[in-house]
Specification:
This is Carboxymuconolactone decarboxylase-like domain-containing protein. The protein is mainly alpha-helical. It is built from 13 helices and no strands. The chain starts with a helix and ends with a helix. The N terminus is likely disordered.
Length: about 240
């Protein structure tokens, strides 16, 4: 099924042929992640959740491709922020779609690294969205708590805390790699070799690296634009997530 077919799937045939009809994708306003509080204001208004009436065919196709990747869920606030620039939203959708759906790196390791990026960068939206996915993919509550609470491993104290944590050897290697990529950019040779030592192959290392890089990019956009109006809020606790 093509993106346009998915886009049209929920549109009655009679309305597809009507020039006055604009299909609607509802924003997921019921999610706790995106719950608005009266004291929060967005830095940019969200783009329309459907192509503007004067949109060119290229923009309409971009909306369709993003809707296809989200299907059956609606577009999310991040999509509606990026859609102020449809070409950027399109490239973003393609890149993150590959990271999330076309890789062989175990989902638990990807989500563990994403959650760690969220903690290091203070990206509340990212943590609240991905911590439940980490739990779903097999990260335990105690492991997720360690990801949130262990000090950055770019310090000696952080390395010692990581060593005492409940995390497995491969999880520790991923956390340390994520920390150095996020906070220092340059990764120590020992940290890189640890990925090989714990069993990651070349493809998995590339996918972990691009995943960490991608979600650093995501977190920076989320925080800079205050997507979802989450800046200044507390990240959900592990207890809340497993309740």
């Amino acid at each position: 099924m093509t993106a346009v077919q998915i886009w049209e799937e929920t549109i009655p045939a009679a309305k597809i042929n009507s020039t006055a009809y604009i299909p609607t994708i509802q924003l997921d306003t019921h999610s706790n992640i995106f719950e608005k509080k009266s004291h929060c204001t967005m830095r940019l208004p969200y783009a329309p959740s459907t192509p503007p009436r004067d949109a060119d065919p290229s923009t309409t196709e971009i909306y369709a491709r993003i809707a296809a990747r989200r299907h059956p869920r609606p577009l999310i606030p991040l999509d509606l922020s990026l859609l102020h620039s449809p070409p950027v939203a399109d490239g973003w959708n393609s890149f993150l779609g590959a990271i999330r759906t076309r890789t062989i790196l175990p989902g638990a390791l990807l989500e563990l690294s994403v959650c760690r990026v969220a903690v290091l960068n203070g990206a509340v939206y990212e943590w609240n969205a991905h911590a439940p996915l980490a739990l779903k993919d097999g990260v335990t509550a105690d492991e997720l708590r360690a990801v949130r609470e262990v000090e950055a491993t770019t310090t000696d104290a952080g390395k010692e805390a990581l060593g005492r944590s409940v995390l497995s050897e491969v999880q520790r290697a991923v956390v340390r790699y994520t920390d150095e990529m996020t906070l220092r950019v340059r990764v120590e040779e020992e940290t890189f070799e640890d990925l090989r030592r714990v069993g990651l192959n070349e493809r998995e290392i590339v996918e972990l690296t691009t995943g960490v890089a991608a979600y650093n990019c995501v977190s920076r956009v989320l925080v800079a634009l205050d997507v979802g109006e989450n800046n200044g809020r507390e990240m959900k606790s592990v207890e809340e997530l497993v309740a």
